């Protein structure tokens, strides 16, 4: 590519192990645009497989196991990233997530805690670990992945606890936008609709997901690279005056 939007910037992407996932697609696009990328995920085996498939050099790509639900692990992981990057993190993509299909009445307290621990507390933990590297440089972009479920109260992705966590992602991101704007740090949300990943664990094929989206204006499910494109926009200087917003990428399934 002749125009590299993230040349020599350092990006951290959580939840990047799934072969068909948004995190891996975002890592690939960021690498194509000149970024140095650190990918983190709880599943170390899949993470290393993803790193091998991305095919970047050790100077360009770092893969580290991390449970984002643990503040100690997040701090230790960011310390290792800082040692690799020379103390620099320009972009954070909070993508790590888990889900559970359950009715409101069937969700147990343990279920609720587990879903919020990764989807919401994980955003807090990793962001809190990264922000101290951004403040002294007076720049940074934090991008957190929410969900259409946070806007329409559920669907195929998960139950009420998942909806609550993803709605919380929007709230905490706006709070970060307000608090850190004076330091040149932007914080924004991407809210995907139905995407052809294996995240929902429904066993649906890509074709069946396209069929499920026939009632929406674009009449198909989205692809991981289309969410990655939104991440690239929010990570780059193309969005230099955008903070505290939610970018809906859902094929028109929800219009705000």
Short description:
The protein is of the alpha/beta class and 256 residues long. Helix content is 42%, strand content 15%.
Features of this protein?
256 residues; alpha/beta; Rossmann fold; 7-stranded parallel beta sheet; 8 helices; globular
Q: Which CATH-level-2 architecture? A: 3-Layer(aba) Sandwich
Low-confidence stretches: none
Rg calculated over all Cα atoms? 17 Å
Look at the structure and name the CATH superfamily: NAD(P)-binding Rossmann-like Domain
So what's the overall shape?
globular
CATH class: Alpha Beta
Enumerate how many helices there are, as a single number: 8
Structural class by SSE content: alpha/beta
Distance between the termini: 34 Å
Average of pLDDT = 92
Strands in their spatial order, largest beta sheet? 3-2-1-4-5-6-7
Strand tally, please?
A: 7
The amount of beta strand, in percent, is 5-15%
How would you explain this protein's 3D organization?
With 256 residues, the protein is an alpha/beta fold. It has a single domain (10-249), classed as NAD(P)-binding Rossmann-like Domain (Rossmann fold), CATH 3.40.50.720. Helix content is 42%, strand content 15%. A seven-stranded parallel beta sheet has the order 3-2-1-4-5-6-7, sandwiched between helices. The mean pLDDT is 92.
Write the layout of secondary structure elements.
Elements (H helix, E strand, L loop, with lengths): L9 E5 L7 H11 L3 E6 L2 H11 L6 E5 L5 H15 L5 E4 L14 H26 L5 E6 L3 H4 L7 H21 L4 E8 L13 H7 L11 H12 L10 E4 L7
Parallel strand pairs: 1-2, 1-4, 2-3, 4-5, 5-6, 6-7
């Amino acid at each position: 590519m002749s125009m590299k939007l993230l040349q020599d910037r350092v990006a951290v992407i959580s939840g990047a192990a799934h072969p068909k996932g948004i995190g891996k697609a975002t890592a690939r696009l960021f690498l194509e645009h000149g970024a140095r990328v650190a990918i983190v995920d709880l599943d170390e085996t899949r993470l290393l497989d993803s790193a091998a498939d991305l095919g970047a050099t050790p100077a360009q790509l770092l893969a580290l196991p991390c449970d984002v639900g643990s503040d100690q692990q997040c701090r230790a992981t960011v310390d290792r990233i800082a040692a690799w990057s020379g103390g620099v993190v320009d972009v954070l993509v909070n993508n790590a997530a888990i889900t559970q299909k359950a009715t409101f009445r069937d969700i147990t307290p343990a279920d609720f805690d587990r879903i919020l621990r990764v989807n919401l507390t994980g955003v807090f933990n990793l962001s809190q670990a990264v922000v101290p590297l951004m403040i002294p440089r007076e720049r940074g972009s934090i991008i957190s992945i929410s969900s259409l479920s946070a806007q329409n109260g559920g669907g195929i992705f998960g139950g009420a606890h998942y909806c609550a966590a993803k709605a919380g992602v929007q709230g905490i991101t706006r709070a970060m936008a307000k608090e850190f704007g004076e330091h040149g740090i932007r914080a924004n949300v991407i809210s995907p609709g139905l995407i052809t990943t294996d995240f929902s664990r429904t066993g649906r094929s890509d074709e069946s997901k396209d069929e499920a989206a026939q009632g929406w204006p674009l009449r198909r499910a989205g692809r991981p690279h289309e969410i990655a494109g939104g991440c690239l926009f929010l990570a780059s200087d193309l969005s230099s005056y955008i903070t505290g917003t939610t970018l809906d990428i859902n094929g028109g399934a929800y219009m705000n």
